Amino acid sequence: LLHLISSTDSLLKQKELFRQAGNREGEMMAWRHLGRKYREDNHFIKAIEAHTSEYQLADALTDTAGMIQALNNIGTCQRRMSLLDEASRYHYHALRLCEAFSDKQSHTARKNRVVSLNGIGNIALRVGDDETADSVFRAALAGEAQLNSALGQAINYANLGAIFEKKGLTDSAWVYYRQSMKMNQQAQSALGIALCHGHFGDLFLKEGETEKAIAQYEKAYQMKGQIDT
């Protein structure tokens, strides 16, 4: 039901219906969808408030998987706001719950773990801790491969490519960005494909291939109708 609702107003109404019916699990999931919708719209404070309500309900329900998802959601919002210390705290808290949780084999449990790792890796990359970022992204990539998630693999290949690009190792960066493109195409992710064209453009520019760089940026720009502008 919640996946079919696209507007925040409708989600708020459905959340209230769940609350009035005493359906706390439904209310928790409505807060989760609301938070993600707010985040997509760049309303990060509202998103954090929604995911905090999600966490509180998950805690009351002793729903460990729900708590982990809420913590990762809060961490992601804080990361987008560049509140890296806070974001790190939430992603590490989520990872500790993953390690302590008795369920380590279900799809949800394994996905929660790789999301936690990916968040930690992105923070490490932002603060210049490339060694930690590389290690964590590789662990996340292995987890996404086990889950057969093409999009998850695409994201982590691109993250690893960014590390090599930052180090000036463009040959290695090409390898990982091309793998990312392959997985994004498999996942049919227009956003991921556009981002890869941008990465290709950056590498061509670094190599002095200006015309090839422009061509790649143009390909990314032409996809604007398929993705969030």
Would you give an account of this structure?
- This protein is mainly α.
- The protein has eleven helices and no strands.
- Helix 4 packs antiparallel against helix 5, helix 4 packs parallel to helix 6 and helix 6 packs antiparallel against helix 7.
- Category from helices, strands and their pairing: mainly alpha
SSE sequence, one letter per element: HHHHHHHHHHH
Main sheet: strands, sense, barrel: none
How many distinct beta strands? 0
Amount of helix:
over 70%
Low-confidence stretches: none
Mean pLDDT: 95
Distance between the termini: 27 Å
Q: Any idea what the radius of gyration is?
A: 19 Å
Query: How many alpha or pi helices?
Result: 11
Strand content: under 5%
Overall morphology = globular
Question: Brief overview, please?
Answer:
By secondary structure, the protein is mainly alpha-helical.
List the helices and strands and how they pair.
Layout: H1 8-20, H2 24-40, H3 44-60, H4 64-80, H5 84-100, H6 107-126, H7 130-146, H8 150-166, H9 170-187, H10 190-206, H11 210-222
Helix pairs in contact: 1-2, 2-3, 2-4, 3-4, 4-5, 4-6, 5-6, 6-7, 7-8, 8-9, 9-10, 10-11
List keywords for this structure.
229 residues
